[in-house]
Amino acid sequence: MKAMTMPTEYRQASADFDRFILDVRDIAGLQTTNQAYTMVQSVFQTFRRRLEISDALLFANVLPPVLRAIFVADWDLEEPIVPFSGRLAMTREVQSLRSDHNLSPDTAIADVAAALRRNVDEVTLDRVLAWLPEGAVDFWRA
């Protein structure tokens, strides 16, 4: 029996995540990767709240392994789905996660979108976003 090789995306998961989180930190002008992590987590949760589970999983499959794990971690499946709203309202939602430690700027969503687009296949991302509810494409506009 021939052994299956480990997919490159799993072999390089830590390095890929490090590159992404540094991009987020630098784009947002944050001081630390801990601050960048909180911002990414809150942007992902804000987006996730607006999707049916099946749509969220389509999006998650575009993400590299560590980002995929962050996207689905601590998911309250009973939480009601909320509609996409204006960028300012969604940004305030992003900033509300662990608000005492959250230094996400008003550009948080666009900053994470810019870093994400540097670190995933944009054609695949845009194809998946086009299938998602109205508002998803605008959410991930850098």
Which fold name fills CATH's third level, the topology? Answer: Globin-like
Report the mean per-residue pLDDT as an integer: 95
**Counting H and I runs of at least 4 residues, what is the number of helices?**
9
Q: What sequence of helices (H) and strands (E) makes up the elements? A: HHHHHHHHH
The coarse overall form would be globular
CATH superfamily: Uncharacterized conserved protein DUF2267
Description:
The chain has 142 residues and is mostly helical. It has a single domain (13-139), classed as Uncharacterized conserved protein DUF2267 (Globin-like, Orthogonal Bundle), CATH 1.10.490.110. Helix content is 62%, strand content 0%. The protein has helices at residues 8-11, 13-28, 33-48, 53-60, 65-72, 87-96, 108-119, 122-131, 136-139. Helix 2 crosses helix 3 (33-48). It is globular.
